[in-house]
Amino acid sequence: MSQVNGPIRVVVVDDQPLIRAGFAMVLGAQSDITVVGEAENGADALQLLAVTKADVVIMDIRMPVMDGVEATQRLSQLPDVPKVLVLTTFDTDEDAFAALQAGASGFLLKNTPSEEVVAAIRVLAAGESVVAPRVTRKLLDRFAGKLAPSSRHAEQLDMLTKRERDVLELIAEGLSNSEIAASLFIAEATVKTHFGNILTKLDLRDRVQAVIFAYDSGIARASG
Question: What is the pTM of this model?
Fold first, then answer.
């Protein structure tokens, strides 16, 4: 997974000026993070990111002109796409689920303490996702009934070995790499190798996307 060299470049997208200013103040105080731009809606963000290099985009969901879900979807289709961290009010927000489907690497609640936001940005810049798999599962359990496996997903699953499917299923259950290793009686390094193969074969970016694919393909089911 790629890592950022030099300061982490962040773009803040929110229709509330005070929120943007608050992020700029908090992030600007970090020696390894720099805010390279701000936008008040998704359309402005796309224009900005067309000419400004960013590593992480903090994306509000509900905005005029273009919301965060559509903006994330459009960003995900671009080469060298930045990591998107969406902001939401509730951890079972349907729009947060849609943003994750669209390509976001995670989400945070709007009342998340500033130090956790800073930590999340660093994790994203290191190439990881910032939503714990179990939290992602909570969100997916809320909306997984809307998902319907497609023939395309079946074809993609056929590319996986049985062991890779086992690993993907356990990832969707919310298990960590060490827990998966213990469950399958294999080394943790082997789990990491399988996970890397899963990402490559399914053209996924991170663990969040892998969990969503597992639900979307029917390999994982909503609990309850």
Answer: 0.73
